[in-house]
Amino acid sequence: MTRAERKLVRRLKERDERAFSELMESNGDRVFNLCFRLLGNRQEAEDLAQDVFITVFKKIDTFQGDSKLSTWIYRIASNLSKNRIRYLAVRHDRSKAEFDETVDASAAAAALTSPKQAKSPDAHVEVQQLEGIMQEAIAELEEDHRILIVLRDIEELSYEEICEITDLAEGTVKSRLHRARLALRKKMMTRM
């Protein structure tokens, strides 16, 4: 953990509201994007991202500094997302129809952190469609596969950080990630 992170954590533990605002400003987009990719629903992701920061504020005293602050926040976001996915599955709110109504291709493309730059309008539309297909395919993956794809391939976290977030051994992360990539490729191929 960097010196700046330690200082921020100390301020958060002192309940400094400016520190909390800084934390939200520096991590808000990444937390929202993670939640959005895991849930596939913009409104749910916005609500859940707020819940993540409320949880961080409430539980900051339990943060021991063994990992980066962002890793700890991702773990909270991941766990809350998993709980929300289960809740929505029970309520039958994770249907494909809901996904189609909530997330069109351009919204999915906007949620990806590194959209490809297209040289022509046709190429731009094609990239958006491909990213929309990818987002839909990710949303259909098993929960354990989805989180690994998002954390490693989209958020580009290290295996060490993913292990801390998921509580899995590195070998398990790598083997599940391999299976997740195969499942994602298969889902995308059926759509193309």
How would you explain this protein's 3D organization?
It is a single chain. This protein has 192 residues and is an all-alpha fold. The chain has ten helices and no strands. Helix 1 packs across helix 2, helix 4 crosses helix 9 and helix 8 crosses helix 10. The termini are far apart. 28% of the residues are buried. About 12% of the residues have low confidence.
Q: How many beta-strand segments?
A: 0
Largest sheet: none
Query: Structural class per helix/strand content?
Result: mainly alpha
Termini separation (Å)?
44 Å
Gross geometry? globular
Q: What percentage of residues falls in helices of 4 or more residues? A: over 70%
Strand content: under 5%
What count of helical segments does DSSP give? 10
Q: Rg from C-alpha positions?
A: 17 Å
Which runs of at least 5 residues are low in confidence (pLDDT < 50)?
A: 93-116
Instruction: Provide the succession of SSEs.
Output: HHHHHHHHHH
The chain-level mean pLDDT equals 83
Oligomer: single chain
